[in-house]
Amino acid sequence: MIGFFDSGVGGLSVWRAFQKEAPTIPLLYFADQEFCPYGEKSHDELIERADKIAEFLISKGAKIIVVACNTATAAAIEFLRNKYPIPFVGMEPAIKTAALASTSKAVGVLATEGTFSGRLFNETKEKYAKGVNVIIQAGKGMVDLVENQLIGTSAAHKVLKNLLVEMIAQDVDHIVLGCTHYPFLKNDIQEIVGTEVTLIDPAPAVVRQIKRIIDKENLVFDNNEKYQFYTTNNNVSVFQQQVIQLVPITKNNTFNTCRL
Fold first, then answer.
1. How many alpha carbons fall within 13 Å on the CB side of residue 164?
2. Which of 78, 135, 143, 229 has the CB geometry, 3.0–4.6 Å to 37, for a possible disulfide?
3. pLDDT, average across residues 67-95
4. Is 36 annotated in the active site?
């Protein structure tokens, strides 16, 4: 089994991309909704949550754990890799892709403050974005739009327009979606910035890395197409509705609450 976790349902954007490529591999998704959003948590709090969730996923049989959250990756991936013997896959800041592809030499990055303050983002920006105008914008309110099922609404457009004003003014031609919740708002963002702006979803790169690890480690999985979903929220029925709205699932699914 492969385990995925995020503060909420945002990491399903990565789960969805992998499930499309490998539909028979059993997957477990863990949404830490009681502590969502992670962008407001301290570094130590994020490590504590990631540690507890990783221990739970391993107890359930995870052979790989995907930290399907940019903020948690920035805070905890090194800790997790040092503590546990199984492979961990984190979210890479796609600023490299945007900077190298930009013709206007202006790119935007939507992410959390936790991602922007992380070592990996700043090292990547310094290495690959020299000579490129990088407009960073904390996506305040974007996680809530996805968690509260407000995708495609006027409320979503109102929040997004305010966040995208500076990027539009600076003539960006690429925008990095630096939080796994944000790809679910891709259509809303595209309507505001126009089709000439390329939106970069980091999920495909993460999927490629998972597949590389499977090949390298010669990992074998039971091909039972079983998908398990856990939340730290007591309201499992709402969680189930959120999942069904966001990803294509049909059978062999279980939904549970788990307090960690």
1. 26
2. 143
3. 93
4. no
